[in-house]
């Protein structure tokens, strides 16, 4: 991926192999297996539908598991970063931030992090609201 300046407008990424190959192949496989079962009913074709659905579920679950692990690592990184950047009394309030808020705060520069944390705690900002409030964007090119 090119290292162009990342912003709220362009920070979302797609993984071409997942989004444009694995998902379509999985969905098409379910459709083909279902059509085959309708046209030629048999135990074997019924089992093919079950296997195609299981493979499709596996594709999505594998992606979800990877994203959950990334979220856990990001939350840990951000807690450590907040401990280093924030001064008391904000430092003592880190535990009040939700996982989703921590994940969104990763885009804020160290300079604006205290202001944004305070705003987030006062106004209970959502992930999208936090990202929109970031002025000096700290890119995350590793997220998939």
First-to-last CA distance = 11 Å
What is the 3D form? Answer: elongated
Number of domains: 1
* Helix share bin: 55-70%
The succession of helices and strands, N to C, reads HHHHH
Strand content: under 5%
Discrete helix count: 5
For the sheet with most strands, the description reads: none
- Provide the low-confidence segments as ranges: none
Mean pLDDT: 92
Query: Got a strand count?
Result: 0
Rounded Rg: 21 Å
Helix and strand content put the structural class at mainly alpha
What's this model, at a glance?
With 144 residues, the protein is an all-alpha fold. The chain has one domain.
Notes on the structure:
This protein is mainly α. It has one domain (16-133). The chain contains 5 helices and no strands. The protein has helices at 16-39, 43-85, 99-105, 113-123, 127-133. Helix 1 (16-39) packs antiparallel against helix 2 (43-85) and helix 2 (43-85) crosses helix 3 (99-105). The longest helix has 43 residues, at 43-85. The mean pLDDT is 92.
Please outline the helices and strands.
Blueprint: H1 16-39, H2 43-85, H3 99-105, H4 113-123, H5 127-133
Helix pairs in contact: 1-2, 2-3, 3-5
């Amino acid at each position: 991926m090119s290292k162009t300046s990342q912003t709220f407008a362009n920070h979302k990424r797609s993984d071409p192999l997942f989004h444009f190959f694995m998902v379509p192949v999985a969905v098409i496989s379910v459709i083909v297996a279902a059509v085959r079962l309708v046209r030629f009913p048999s135990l074997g074709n019924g089992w093919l539908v079950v296997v195609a659905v299981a493979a499709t579920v596996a594709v999505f679950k594998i992606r979800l598991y990877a994203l959950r692990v990334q979220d856990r690592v990001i939350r840990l990184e951000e807690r450590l970063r907040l401990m280093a950047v924030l001064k008391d009394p904000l430092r003592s309030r880190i535990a009040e931030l939700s996982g989703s808020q921590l994940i969104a705060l990763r885009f804020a520069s160290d300079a604006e992090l205290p202001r944004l944390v305070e705003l987030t705690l006062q106004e209970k900002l959502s992930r999208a609201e936090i990202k929109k409030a970031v002025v000096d964007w700290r890119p995350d090119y590793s997220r998939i």
